[in-house]
Amino acid sequence: MSNPIVIVGAGLSGLRAASLLSELGIKCRVLEARDRVGGRVLSTPHPNRSDAGKFDLGPTWFWPQHEKTMANLVKELNLETFDQYTKGAMLSERYHNALPERYVLPENSLERSVRFTGGVQSLIEAIENTIPPGIVELETRVTAIRLDKTGAITLDVEHANGSKEEVYASAVILALPPRIVASHIEFSPSLPKNLMTDLVNKPTWMAGQAKAVAIYDHPFWRESGLSGFAASWVGPLQEIHDASPNTGSGALFGFFGMPAKMRRELGEDEILKLVIDQLVRLFGPDANKVSSILYKDWSGDFETAVEEDSNPLRDFPVYGKPPQGGVWENKIIFAGTETNSQYGGHLEGALQSAEQAVFEITNLKNKTLLR
Q1: In a 10 Å sphere around its CB, with 0-12 CB exposed, 13-18 middle and 19+ buried, how is residue 161 labelled?
Q2: In the list 52, 254, 269, 349, which could disulfide-bond 343, CB 3.0-4.6 Å?
């Protein structure tokens, strides 16, 4: 393997794969189209207060009692975490023009979930710090992957300044959502029909969703015995949680019930007005004293979503490893949370898929050495 392993995508899977390969002394390059690392992990600070903490607009938590890969990595990287706040009553908003109902859930009815101090981005940064400098290349878009008759792999790459490059690889780890692979990258020869069908039929986790985070000076709802957890059949948010960091400021975040098309038609300003109106209905007039509000619609993110992802998911997708790639077998390896069967859609799935990809690379390397 004289050429490096090329990893396409610098999200959690891609960075973890690069970290593990580097640890094993295997040459690699990470090519990322965005101008940042993290992929769907996005932790954003308060626009005017750097001391207010960071707020997750992508994944938010994990479950250490079930997700051992993540729990072990957090311990290995010495990352600081804290339990998701769940003390107090939840609210249920069932009907228009009706007061929200208040419920005290039985003790231990909610499974313990854990958040990162500094947001999930702190995990991304810690992994990135384990990778030697120069391996991760931002604003570097892979447009095509070619395989010649001798088995040599070439990637066509475009840089932010418009320049183009050919990158040679001994194997490629595609650490991207399957639909993004199918939509954004041209393969020569083409991927087998059954593989392409599998990629197109795997919805990108979170791609049809949007998140809003309302930030306050302090978590005022806790003073009223509320946990910040709410469910709504009215909207626009259908599920709300306490998103307060452990810095003293308060925050509520919610997932939207309305489809992506409706969000686009309404526009961000109108949507955020509806969000604040809903929070006031649920949590009282203090919810109007918002310090800042953050919003991320993943359905409009070119590096995350394709048009098919605008359709709301009705059931949890069936994820898992794509089928063998015909002539591309052992040349391209898929990673990412959508390729993990047990924890698809979770950070845990992203980590396990990276470990599996590196395991396959080391097997290929050992076979090559034995020839």
Answers
A1: exposed
A2: 349
Alpha carbon 189 to chain centroid distance? 30
- What are the helix (H) ranges across the chain? 12-23, 68-76, 121-128, 178-184, 193-200, 260-266, 268-283, 347-370
Per the CB < 8 A criterion, the answer to whether 229 and 240 are in contact is: yes
pTM for the model: 0.95
What CA–CA distances, in Å, run from 202 to 145, 190, 344, 361?
A: 21, 19, 11, 24
Structural tokens at position 104: 């005290």
* CB 299, CB 313: distance < 8 Å: no
> Taking a C-beta distance cutoff of 8 angstroms, is the pair 352, 343 a contact?
yes
**Tokens of residue 258, six digits:** 């309305």
SS3 content of the chain, % helix, strand, coil (to 5): 30, 25, 40
Domains of the chain listed by start with CATH number: 1-42+118-203+312-370 (3.50.50.60)
SS3 for 273? Answer: helix
DSSP 191-240: PPHHHHHHHHTSPPTTTT-EEEEEEESS-GGGGGTEEEEEEESSSSEEEE
